[in-house]
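Cross-posting from the modeling subforum.

Setting up a comparison between two proteins and wanted a second pair of eyes on the formatting. Protein 1 (sequence, then structure tokens):
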Amino acid sequence: MKEQQTEEQLWSYIDGSATASEKAFVEKMLAAHDEWKAKYREQLELHQLLMSETEPEQPSLRFSKNVMEQIADRQPKAATSSYINKNIIRSIAAFFILTISALLIYSFTQVNWAETGGSSLIPFDTKDIKLPSFELSKYFNSYVINAILMVTVVPGLMFFDGILRRKKSAA
């Protein structure tokens, strides 16, 4: 640790970044200790070598033009429409449309059209109109639910298999 501090103090002395008190301390130590003198000579030689042999490299005059030409030669990425499958988007839209329409049909069948809620906006009496009742429990029994699950699970497994095959072929 002490050796590292010695080197740091010598470097700041050689670079000229040391304060006046640090300069005085280093000069005092150089005059008194041979180890400090040896380290000082090594670091001074290295400093002079670095200053004499290293010149900052200048880029060529056409550097920025060459970079801009290489950027212009690269093809831009394909538009997102090319890698988004439109059939998937359509199937998602169809699913939501069917779900919303099924909910609307169900809600309209559950309304009691015979009852009036106070003042009627309809100019005729709706008590005489009989609508057929629609019970979903007749149609959605356990067999239908199982069939729907099978119909949705099979394409899901096929989709998952396709993803795994693409990963395998890419690797």
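Protein 2 (same layout):
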Amino acid sequence: MRTMYAPWRINYILGPKEKGCFLCIRRSRGYQQRHFILRETQACYVLLNRYPYSAAHLMVVPRRHTADLDALSADELLDFISLTRDAARVLKKAVAAHGINLGANLGRAAGAGLEDHFHFHIVPRWNGDHNFMPVLGDTCVLPEYLEQTYRRLLPYFE
């Protein structure tokens, strides 16, 4: 049996757990970097997923805590989809993605790990990016630490 090391996970395992919704981010000194926020708009923000399916996996999140897509106002929805479009465009350029998966899981039956705060996942994809690891090893291999990905992507979002 082979061992794969993921030393960045120990901070999550041993660290204090946030109470409440982890997407309802309180603004304080250094919060953007601490939460890997790449861009903020009036109604939404985009950040790196801490537990990604793929390298540079982003999430677009409305600031307002709601599980219901229908609850977003027309202005919030326009801001949300515009930020999603911009983030997908940036990923294509910043990580040379050949394609993008966009997804939202609305409700537990649809696979939502967080049911109470609607968000989109933006996952960059590359031709041939699947190998045996996710299929046979039930393991996702990420090529760099989140902090490095954040620093690499940030200039594209400024």
